[in-house]
Amino acid sequence: MKKNYVLALLAAASFAACSKKDDNNNTTPPPASGNDTIMIRNKITANQTWNKNKVYVLRGYVYVDNATLSIEAGTKIISMRDSAGVLVVYKGAQLQANGTADNPIVFTSGHTEKKPGDLGGIVLVGKATGNGNHSKIEGNVDAAYSAFGGNQDDDNSGSLQYVRIEYAGKAVAANDEINGLSLYCVGNKTTLNYIQVVNGLDDAFEFFGGSVNAKHLIAYNCADDDFDMDDAYHGMIQFAVSVKQPSFTDKKSDGDVSNNFEVDNTNPKNLPITTTPTTFPVLSNFTAIGPNNDVRTSADYGYGMRWRRGTKFILGNSIIMGAQKAALRIDDNVTIGFYADGTSGLKNSLLHGSSDLFSTADGSAAVVLDAAGLQNLVTGRDATKIFAAANAGDIKLKDPFNNKTPDLAPQTGSPAIVADPAKFDGKLADAFFEKVKYLGAVDPANDWTKAKWVAWDRIVVTQ
Hints:
With 463 residues, the chain is mainly beta. Helices cover 4% and strands 31% of the residues. The protein has one domain (20-450). It is built from 2 helices and 30 strands. It has a 26-stranded parallel sheet that branches. Strands 11-12 form a two-stranded antiparallel ribbon. Strands 29-30 form a two-stranded antiparallel sheet.
């Protein structure tokens, strides 16, 4: 380790010695430690608080182990690309990161010229229920911290509110990267509210099992899937935004594509897709904006929603616009069957795509439901309205395809504004869901995505 990389200890912290792996310095070194800059490495094993008057530099993998890390509103945590920081809050530990609308907590790149991947990301690990699809945490974490899950759905990993995560996505190996916010079997006593992931190199939010609920999430210009769920995730989410930059996707090597939603039960290479418990998210008031066939659109863009590999789902009161391929794709007969029998549903929503609206497929047998049959259920039983490729303007959002500064609020006369509360029946009747009078994530009278803590105008430079 270079001599000017001084390890500054916080009063209540306990850190192990720096490893060479975390300091493979092949680019601009981080700022030297001092009174106002503190290097963070290896393990945090005692309760501590990070102060808004200091800057914290995450160096490599940092594990919060059987302790509570509290972060004051307005604190900035940075990472340098030579040793991209990954904050892993392990089972039994908590992260209390509670910013405010005017003073968010920001995890970001420490470089002047910031790039996706400068930061690794944040990983919360809990004891809630999963189905074993993943045998260990992705991203080359230490073996001592690789196990996750249990049977405690009321587990509590802490609270993240008014938090922004920028330029995340540590590349470990091909198809193995850290997401902006990874949630491994996180329990429903955890608070997730007002969180934005910006310019991520991989997924924005990925839920690996667990029961955690969330509100007010924004995925902005991330390269892969914005909302990725698997391993029997069974939580609830309301008020969430997905905005895609047309020219920015991660490099694919296996025929995969980048989607607003990608939701699986299991990967058949790991476990049969009929494995129980089953992935079953219940979601409401999403606004998902795809590239809408912009001339700069990457060839690796995919679907507005891709539900596959045995998953169940409810998505209601939402707006899906500008999908590059099908707006709604269901991949296999198990997943299609859940839609056909009414277990799953796309309810009371507005659906638009730049090409096909519906797609179904199954490689092993005759498809249970073709695209036309799926459309009949979506528009009939589930009361979702569809809009042809040329008619996105009929949804009447203010400026949804302005990627630099999107305005997702409904205009006067938009079909997203309803006289009575939108339909919250069945699983959507749960008290968690606010019974609002609009579809999509944004209240036309009070646009939370325009608050000070939210960052727009972050275009990724692509070649």
